[in-house]
Amino acid sequence: MKSIRISQLLEDQGHDLRLTLMAGTQGLARTVDSSRIQKPGLALAGFTEHLHPHRVQVFGNTEISYLATLPEDAQRASLAKLFSEEDLACVVVTKALDVPRALVDACEAAGLSLMKTPLLSSEFIQRVQNFLEDALTESSSLHGVLMDVFGVGILLLGKSGIGKSEIALDLVMRGHRLVADDIVDVTRRKGAVYGAGNPVIKHHMEIRGLGIINIKDLFGVSAVREQKKIELVIELQEWDPHQEYDRLGVEDKHLQIVGVDIPLSVVPVRPGRNMATIVEVAARNQLLKLQGHHSAREFAERLNRAIAQGAMRRTLGEEVE
C-alpha cells in the first residue's frame, strides 16, 4: 500500500493547506496511507475502539472546547491515552484556535507532529482529502498514444515506428481528440485508470519526416484534452503471416495497468489496412459492450443455435425414414 510522509503535508503547494508546524518535529517521518480523515471526538473521552492508525487527526472547535472544560491534569491524561493507541499520523488544529499547552506537550512526548491551520475544519478536511487522494494514487508512465475517440479513451501501444502517431494524427483530422503522444502518465483513481500528457511534451506529436508538431496550435483547443479515462487498449503488431490472430473476438483479453484490468485488442498492422477506421470501429464496439451488446458472442450464440437446430432436423428426418 502506498504511503506518504507527514512532512509532505507541509511541503504542499497546490492545495493551499496553510499548515504551520507547532510541535513534534520527530513525527514528520511518520506516514499516512489513507485519504480518510478522522476527528477524535469520543476518543478524547476515552472511547478509542474506532480510532484508526495512520490517519490525520483533526482537532476542531468541538475537540478544543472539550479539552478546555477539563482540568489540566485531566487534559494530559486524556491526551496521553489517546496518543498511546496505534500509530496515529499527525494532529492538525483548525480555525487558528489557541493550542492548549497540554496538547503541545502530549504531541512532543508521543513523537507526534502537531500542526495548525487557519482554515475551518470542513474546508481543511476537503482540501487535505484531495491532497491525499492525489498523493496516494498509484501512477506510472507508458510509451504510447492516448486518444479520445467517440468519448472512449483508447490507448495505442506498439513498438517504436509502427505508426501510432500517424494513426493518432489521422484520428485528429477526423475530429477526435489527442490526450498524449509518446509518453502517457497514468494514475489510478477509484478503480479506474486515467491518462494524461507529460507536462513537458503535452499537446505535441512527433511525425517522422515532419518533426515535432503542436496539435493544439494546428487544429485548435477542440483537438486536445488534458486527461481521459482509459477504457480500451489497442496493441499494434506487425503482420505475421505465420501467426494466428483472433478472428471472432468472443473471448475478451485484458491488460493490467497500475493494478486495473483494461480491455485489450491486438490488431495486426500491414500496408493497405485503414488503421484509423479500425480504431473508430473498435471505439464504437466498446461502447456497444458497455451497453451490454457483445456482437461476437451474440453471433456465436446464433451460430450454435443454427447448428443445433440443423442437427435436430437431420435426426428427426432419419427417424421418419
From TrEMBL:
<keyword id="KW-0460">Magnesium</keyword>
<dbReference type="GO" id="GO:0006109">
    <property type="term" value="P:regulation of carbohydrate metabolic process"/>
</dbReference>
<dbReference type="InterPro" id="IPR003755">
    <property type="entry name" value="HPr(Ser)_kin/Pase"/>
</dbReference>
<feature type="binding site">
    <location>
        <position position="206"/>
    </location>
    <ligand>
        <name>Mg(2+)</name>
    </ligand>
</feature>
<feature type="binding site">
    <location>
        <position position="165"/>
    </location>
    <ligand>
        <name>Mg(2+)</name>
    </ligand>
</feature>
<keyword id="KW-0418">Kinase</keyword>
<dbReference type="InterPro" id="IPR011104">
    <property type="entry name" value="Hpr_kin/Pase_C"/>
</dbReference>
<dbReference type="GO" id="GO:0000155">
    <property type="term" value="F:phosphorelay sensor kinase activity"/>
</dbReference>
<dbReference type="InterPro" id="IPR027417">
    <property type="entry name" value="P-loop_NTPase"/>
</dbReference>
<feature type="region of interest" description="Important for the catalytic mechanism of both phosphorylation and dephosphorylation">
    <location>
        <begin position="205"/>
        <end position="214"/>
    </location>
</feature>
<feature type="domain" description="HPr(Ser) kinase/phosphorylase N-terminal">
    <location>
        <begin position="4"/>
        <end position="132"/>
    </location>
</feature>
<feature type="active site">
    <location>
        <position position="143"/>
    </location>
</feature>
<dbReference type="InterPro" id="IPR011126">
    <property type="entry name" value="Hpr_kin/Pase_Hpr_N"/>
</dbReference>
<protein>
    <recommendedName>
        <fullName>HPr kinase/phosphorylase</fullName>
        <ecNumber>2.7.11.-</ecNumber>
        <ecNumber>2.7.4.-</ecNumber>
    </recommendedName>
</protein>
<keyword id="KW-0479">Metal-binding</keyword>
<keyword id="KW-0547">Nucleotide-binding</keyword>
<comment type="subunit">
    <text>Homohexamer.</text>
</comment>
<feature type="active site" description="Proton acceptor; for phosphorylation activity. Proton donor; for dephosphorylation activity">
    <location>
        <position position="182"/>
    </location>
</feature>
<feature type="active site">
    <location>
        <position position="247"/>
    </location>
</feature>
<keyword id="KW-0808">Transferase</keyword>
<comment type="function">
    <text>Catalyzes the ATP- as well as the pyrophosphate-dependent phosphorylation of a specific serine residue in HPr, a phosphocarrier protein of the phosphoenolpyruvate-dependent sugar phosphotransferase system (PTS). HprK/P also catalyzes the pyrophosphate-producing, inorganic phosphate-dependent dephosphorylation (phosphorolysis) of seryl-phosphorylated HPr (P-Ser-HPr).</text>
</comment>
<dbReference type="GO" id="GO:0005524">
    <property type="term" value="F:ATP binding"/>
</dbReference>
<dbReference type="Pfam" id="PF02603">
    <property type="entry name" value="Hpr_kinase_N"/>
</dbReference>
<feature type="binding site">
    <location>
        <begin position="158"/>
        <end position="165"/>
    </location>
    <ligand>
        <name>ATP</name>
    </ligand>
</feature>
<keyword id="KW-0723">Serine/threonine-protein kinase</keyword>
<comment type="similarity">
    <text>Belongs to the HPrK/P family.</text>
</comment>
<feature type="active site">
    <location>
        <position position="164"/>
    </location>
</feature>
<dbReference type="GO" id="GO:0004674">
    <property type="term" value="F:protein serine/threonine kinase activity"/>
</dbReference>
<feature type="region of interest" description="Important for the catalytic mechanism of dephosphorylation">
    <location>
        <begin position="268"/>
        <end position="273"/>
    </location>
</feature>
<feature type="domain" description="HPr kinase/phosphorylase C-terminal">
    <location>
        <begin position="135"/>
        <end position="302"/>
    </location>
</feature>
<dbReference type="InterPro" id="IPR028979">
    <property type="entry name" value="Ser_kin/Pase_Hpr-like_N_sf"/>
</dbReference>
<keyword id="KW-0067">ATP-binding</keyword>
<dbReference type="GO" id="GO:0004712">
    <property type="term" value="F:protein serine/threonine/tyrosine kinase activity"/>
</dbReference>
<keyword id="KW-0511">Multifunctional enzyme</keyword>
<dbReference type="Pfam" id="PF07475">
    <property type="entry name" value="Hpr_kinase_C"/>
</dbReference>
<dbReference type="GO" id="GO:0000287">
    <property type="term" value="F:magnesium ion binding"/>
</dbReference>
